[in-house]
Write a structure and sequence with these properties.
about 200 residues; alpha/beta; Rossmann fold; two-stranded antiparallel sheet; about 20% strand
Length: about 200
């Protein structure tokens, strides 16, 4: 029997129209989570209105957090497990998702400002995460030939830097014109949702 968890699903596809395979994967995960009795909140980055950060002064000042992102911070704080869904674009996460993470992972929320010469204290510990990433190339090529550098940077330099871990990955390659494996992948995401993983 799976213990109920507080799950936050973050849809990082930048197209607000939806309808992509990545959205179907997220729905499969959500269906599994709901059927198993987990508490679930969902957040679509494409529907949020926020500017990009342009200076350290903006990032340091909590008063510059766009009002649309306060509920996102509250949902992250509430969660025990975050599940990010995004497509691989130009070898990394879409710019909109990166901009979202820069906005929400601010000092005072994700990090405690350190004394001079010290590293910041991580404020989002006690949370785990999963990254569900779709791509046009085979997932093994991204992982072993390209070394998945952008994924490692997200795990270590953003999520790990604020205390989130452990972090698991689900990489789904060759998504265009790949009808035969879709049922298996959707079932896998539904099972992960049921387990709250």
């Amino acid at each position: 029997m799976t213990t109920s968890r507080r799950l936050l699903l973050i849809q990082g596809h930048p197209d607000p129209a939806g309808g992509h395979y990545l959205h179907a994967l997220a729905e499969a995960y959500a269906d599994g989570a709901r059927s198993a009795g987990h508490e679930l909140r969902m957040l679509s980055v494409a529907t949020l209105d926020f500017p990009l950060l342009r200076s350290k002064a903006e990032w340091d000042d909590p008063a510059t957090l766009p009002p649309a992102l306060k509920p996102a911070q509250e949902a992250i704080e509430w969660s025990e497990h975050l599940v990010f869904f995004f497509p691989l674009w130009l070898g990394g996460m879409p710019a909109l998702l990166k901009g979202f993470l820069e906005q929400v992972a601010r000092p005072g929320f994700a990090l405690a400002q350190p004394p001079a010469g010290h590293l910041p204290r991580k404020l989002l510990g006690g949370r785990s995460a999963r990254l569900v990433v779709t791509m046009g190339m085979p997932a093994a090529v991204y992982r072993w030939i390209y070394r998945a550098h952008s994924l490692k940077a997200l795990e270590r330099n953003i999520l790990g830097f604020v205390g989130i871990g452990p972090i698991d990955e689900t990489l789904i390659g060759m998504v265009e014109g790949k009808d035969s494996a879709r049922r298996r992948e959707l079932d896998k995401l539904r099972a992960l949702g049921e387990r709250g993983r």
